[in-house]
Amino acid sequence: xxxxxxxxxxxxxxxxxxxxxxxxxxxxxxxxxxxxxxxxxxxxxxxxxxxxxxxxxxxxxxxxxxxxxxxxxxxxxxxxxxxxxxxxxxxxxxxxxxxxxxxxxxxxxxxxxxxxxxxxxxxxxxxxxxxxxxxxxxxxxxxxxxxxxxxxxxxxxxxxxxxxxxxxxxxxxxxxxxxxxxxxxxxxxxxxxxxxxxxxxxxxxxxxxxxxxxxxxxxxxxxxxxxxxxxxxxxxxxxxxxxxxxxxxxxxxxxxxxxxxxxxxxxxxxxxxx
Length: 274
Fold this sequence. Notes:
The protein is α/β, with parallel strands linked by helices.
């Protein structure tokens, strides 16, 4: 009977020792975790401090895609204020807004990369050229009218491809996207009927707009809501125009009730209006 208390005491003593050993093992593991965490933090701080995080070289640290009107040099010049700035401090929205200041850039999308080295990747969506703008047939083209109505100065973008369609207008002439869409529709409507592309639209006189379509000159009058209907009558007179084409000066589509044809006179004849 005396052995039972001794055995119980030995069991309790061994159990305490096992608990102490387990606790010491946990403390050692926890201590090692803290050591490893401190080493990782120190290594991260060391790498962070000794790594070049800035966009330093525009030739290698700025990558541009999608531009055909604006050159790489023009885009990178706009990004000059962001050079030598830590990549994590560069706001993509601020860069996109800066690039949108270029007349040919409609939208810009910016992505930042920190590894393997800091860089900016620029995706550019440019304006779609619709027509070439000049003040008169005798003057040099001044700008490109984009599909959005935006004027892109040729002086700033000399390498831009000039569309075949020409628009002549006053110096302060402006367009919006709806007006460009409407005029593009009217020009296509004319071409479908004459089988010739429109060469130019002369808008210098707002109430007497003139269209040159191949060797055919059309006077449209006022480009109001009735113009689509008036243009639709052009196909009905094309058969009558063909025999007179060599002497035809213009077709007047400015009236609602008839379509006068101005024909140049032959030698010894009076001018004719048909």
